[in-house]
Specification:
Elements: H1 2-60, H2 65-105, E1 110-112, E2 119-121, H3 136-144
Antiparallel strand pairs: 1-2
InterPro entries: Ribosomal_eL40_sf (IPR038587), Ribosomal_zn-bd (IPR011332), Zinc_ribbon_dom (IPR026870)
Pfam families: Zn_Ribbon_1 (PF13240)
GO molecular function: helicase activity
Length: about 140
């Protein structure tokens, strides 16, 4: 009986661990997405500022290329940050997908009940369908009958 509770506890612990990892990954993904949105808004603002600067310069016939180039470099830096954040988000998403596939890939060994033919986990002590005792003890009991 203690073995059964140990297996149940192990399963619960594994479930808690996986849920904890998934929630951490969701938080990280949300944080990165928020940062990406903020950077995109900064980029739009900088592009608008560049446009206003260009307009004002052309309107007043005082064209200062250095000022425009500085604003342009600022926009390029923002674009680089956006790319980095999107790559980091992609890596978190891939990690999450890989772990999900790994958990799904873990297969439970199965055994067949000698009485009703139902599939049961190999470490089950009793059949989940008919209640027949399974395992080595059940085989020994059948041999003595």
């Amino acid at each position: 009986m203690a073995d059964l509770f140990g297996k149940i506890k192990k399963g619960i612990d594994k479930g808690i661990h996986v849920a904890s990892q998934k929630s951490g990954e969701l938080v990280e993904t949300g944080k990165l997405q928020s940062q990406i949105i903020s950077l995109k808004n900064d980029k739009k603002s900088s592009i608008n500022e560049l446009g206003k600067l260009t307009y004002e310069m052309l309107k007043s016939d005082s064209f200062e290329l250095e000022v425009l180039e500085e604003k342009f470099k600022e926009i390029l830096e923002i674009e680089k940050e956006i790319e980095q954040k999107e790559e980091a988000k992609k890596n978190v998403d891939q990690k999450e997908t890989g772990e999900t596939e790994e958990v799904e890939a873990e297969t439970v060994e199965m055994s067949t009940c000698p009485k009703c033919g139902a599939e049961n986990p190999a470490d089950a002590m009793f059949c989940g369908k008919c209640g027949t005792k399974l395992g080595e003890e059940a085989e020994e009991a059948e041999e003595t009958e």
